[in-house]
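Q: Could you predict the 3D structure of Cell division ATP-binding protein FtsE?
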Amino acid sequence: MIRLHNVSKTYYPHGRSRGRPASDAGVTALKSVDLHVPKGQIHGVIGLSGAGKSTLIRCVNLLERPTTGSVFVDDQELTSLSGQALNQARHRIGMIFQHFNLLTSRTVFANVALPLELMGMKRGEIRERVLPLLDLVGLADKVSQYPAQLSGGQKQRVAIARALASRPRVLLCDEATSALDPHTTGAILELLRDINHKLGLTILLITHEMEVVKSICHRVSLISEGKLVEEAEVGDFFTAPRTHLGRSFLNDFLELEPPRALIERLEEAPGEHSHPVVRLAFSGDAVSTPLISRLARECGVDVSILQAKVESIQDRTLGLMIAELMGTADETREAIDYLESHDLKVEVLGHVQRDV
Ligand SMILES: Nc1ncnc2c1ncn2[C@@H]1O[C@H](COP(=O)(O)OP(=O)(O)OP(=O)(O)O)[C@@H](O)[C@H]1O
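A: Sure. Here are the predicted structure tokens for Cell division ATP-binding protein FtsE:
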């Protein structure tokens, strides 16, 4: 449904003039991005501030025109269109924004009606289209109110109804819940999930919050310095991110870091009298297997659990633990092999001196 092929975007300080001086290098915000979002999927793009998320999503409806590469939506190449043809194609793409972008002088009804007025639709038809949409987003009783009379969550619901007014095939969400509190965020994400389900709408969203990805996305891409560096099913991303940045997002989300006092004592290389400190991630059957007690029995290693957590990520259960393995060098090495042979991901964070 959405396909980006080799899309790059460079912002030039002096626009796109042909006589650009050689020193006018510009900022390359996207580098050779390939992305495919099949029909009916909810796809998240997550990244740090400045990574290129907004540029990426704005390239999908050509609010930003890519410097090179092509963009297809619903099998139509948007990058080959301009003028009226591009306007027509954009009716199939709805968009919502972090700060809602409502017109303050228009009522809720008139905000949702605006794109239909611009399409030249008759008043009666507009009414028939807008009222069910306001019902869908739970605002049937706010038809005549103005944006200033609404909460943030209600404003975003108006924006969602407006985005759906032209019956788009695709909805783009630009940090749509970043200005909302966690409870309201949950409600808006549930509405988006509902719309995806009921209308079969394909959704591409950008966010810097793992919670958003965890709650509603099917797949996720990680963006860093303008490049998509990782793409995975959400369950896989949360159990075994492949990049350092992915692991750092996951650790921040899980808030699973060794205690500060321990971090200060961690040494990179093992010593004669040191124990490894490991981060263990396990999913599937391993969650319910008593591996730690077996470790003690079968490898003769004592395990001191420093932190542990079990998370439900969609249909998967993910266990995480930070632990100190106490035994001789041979015993702890054997213990790590044992854990890995049972499909646990083991990351040695460092080594701490034993009290001798
Ligand atoms: N209109 C512009 N002109 C020049 N540079 C821009 C423009 N818009 C974005 N940039 C630059 O492009 C890079 C990517 O910005 P972008 O806004 O796409 O990132 P982002 O991941 O959405 O960041 P944030 O989460 O902070 O909004 C940044 O270095 C930014 O400074």
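Q: Anything worth pointing out?
A: The chain has a mean pLDDT of 89.
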